[in-house]
Design goal:
single chain; TonB_C; 3-stranded antiparallel β-sheet; alpha+beta; 3 helices; 28% strand; Energy transducer TonB; 8 strands; 30% helix; elongated; TolA/TonB C-terminal domain
Length: 138
Amino acid sequence: MKYFLLFSIITLFSFNTYSQEGVSVKGNSISTKEIAPIWPGCEKSGEPSKDCFNKKLNEHVKANFKYPKDSKGAFIRGKSVLSFSIDETGKVKDITAEGPHKAINEEAIRITKLFPAMKPGMRAGKPATINYKMPFNF
């Protein structure tokens, strides 16, 4: 009986429990924590990463956007809904733009291709592709 008890105690303490970081289980549902990609320069800023990301994104658009002109030389203004992904390496991919003006959509895609490499987003503690869909008014 002593040996059985000793064996049971040793066996119980020899098992290790492993879990994924950023995953929680409550009842019958499992949720994973998602962390957005981090724009260069936002790692050490005091701002929340989402706010810093949006600020840097707006600065990038303002600095790089060139308003297209129509056949009469007037600037084209309008809305474009931009969809893109930031992959596991922090690179932008799968860029599409939808809107009534082809020239604005093309310009939105062009400036998105100029995004710098970022620290990738995380899902359940591992690098993951994060999808974005954003409206832009030009």
